[in-house]
Design a protein that fits this description.
0% strand; single chain; 158 residues; 7 helices; mainly alpha; 2 domains; globular
Length: 158
Amino acid sequence: MNQLDRLRPHVLGLFRIVVALLFFLHGVSTLFHVLAASHGARPSVGEWPGWWAALIQFVTGAFVLLGLGTRSAALVGSGSMAFAYFTEHQPHGLLPIQNGGEPAVMFCWALLLIVFLGPGSLTLGTVLTRLRGAGGVPAVVPPANGAPAAAAATATRG
């Protein structure tokens, strides 16, 4: 078991990447009507709920995929899939196999798992944190003594 535990962050990171990529591509497919056989009419911009659901899939899928704000984005994505299941699928049959809601249920629970387990390894957030620690990317430093940021920057230049 010890060897498997050692790989846990990497496997979780790969799980996050695969789930998020599929979620992101589902949003891309709906928003731009590309990449897949049509799974319905392309929703008009702002149309409820189709366009908004696709936008949530697109945005939260990208954030989870990159590992930026992962838990928050996964929570929003999971909630949107629960909403989709109960409003769009469940009225057509009790079980997901009866109502075509399997993808919504799987995304809901997979994203909820990411909320609780975290992003694992291989995140852009980790890379940015390491670069900041190594001096590669400057961290935002608040100005001293409550001075406006522009004044503080001018004062530090000489």
